[in-house]
Design goal:
The chain is mainly alpha-helical. The protein contains three helices and no strands. The chain is elongated.
């Protein structure tokens, strides 16, 4: 019985110390990630990548819709034409609140 009690006490102590160390490490990682995300260079790079992604997606949309438009039902084709007319040059408007830098 004494060995079981010692084992359980050691297990409990190890659990408490392990979770505390794990929580502290988690908080460190969270703080580091927040600092990186708030770095202006990282934010500008992410914004530029997102803007380029939207431009390429718009161009791909127009390219595919021009080729596939004749092979889809009329209701879908009408929607595709309406979207194509809304963005004639392939650029998609910025709906995310980011600047166009």
């Amino acid at each position: 019985m004494r060995y079981k009690l010692t084992f359980v006490a050691g297990l409990a102590l190890g659990y408490v110390l392990g979770t505390r160390a794990g929580r502290e490490r988690y908080e460190q990682l969270k703080k580091s990630a927040r600092q990186v995300a708030q770095n202006p260079a990282v934010r500008n790079t992410a914004e530029t990548a997102a803007q380029q992604g939207r431009v390429y997606a718009g161009k791909a949309f127009h390219s595919v819709s021009a080729k596939v438009g004749d092979h889809v039902p009329d209701s879908v084709a009408a929607r595709i034409r309406a979207l194509r007319e809304r963005n004639p040059n392939g650029s998609v408007g910025d709906d995310w609140g980011t600047s166009n830098t």
